[in-house]
Amino acid sequence: xxVSHKSQSTQMFRLMLYSRPLHPxxxxxxxxxxxxxxxxxxxxxxxxxxxxxxxxxxDQHLTETVIDRGDHLPENGLVHALPCMGEKDYEMEQQDxxxxxxxxxxxxxxxxxxxxxxxxxxxxxEETGSVSFDWKDAQGTECLSLVxxxxxxxxxxxxxxxxxxxxxxxxxxxxxxxxxx
Length: 181
Known about the structure:
By secondary structure, the protein is mainly beta. It has helices at residues 3-11, 111-128, and strands spanning 13-18, 31-37, 40-47, 50-57, 60-68, 78-83, 87-95, 98-108, 131-136, 142-151, 155-164, 169-179.
């Protein structure tokens, strides 16, 4: 694994926040989970190396995507786009009743550390019941995407982990969707 190849691979990933839902046909869906809690509804989709989380209350939506490139996604409703390189934070100003905050971290690991992390995260997904999807990339290397979450009365916390084998990259996001009156 070369360092420059690893750096280039994370430059293509972006976290994109929309103020509307996105159509599932825009994505290569591999896993899906829907849930309701109090007044909000959540839908989580996993795609190879990324995810989509739709958070909805009556008359208002926010959709978070982490995707390789994202140039096929619409610009209509795009609130913010954030490259998934290094460490980044973003806080959306309150829109009507919704607040959103996220942090993105990416790290390139050695092959041994990547394999240990892959095993640990696979075990974590099984223990917690997180929505997860494992696959092999074009080079035949094991990869994993998982989304774990916690529901509260007026908040939804979501953590994602995307392990990209050939590059040794681990991409992690932590986001909070909050309802305010």
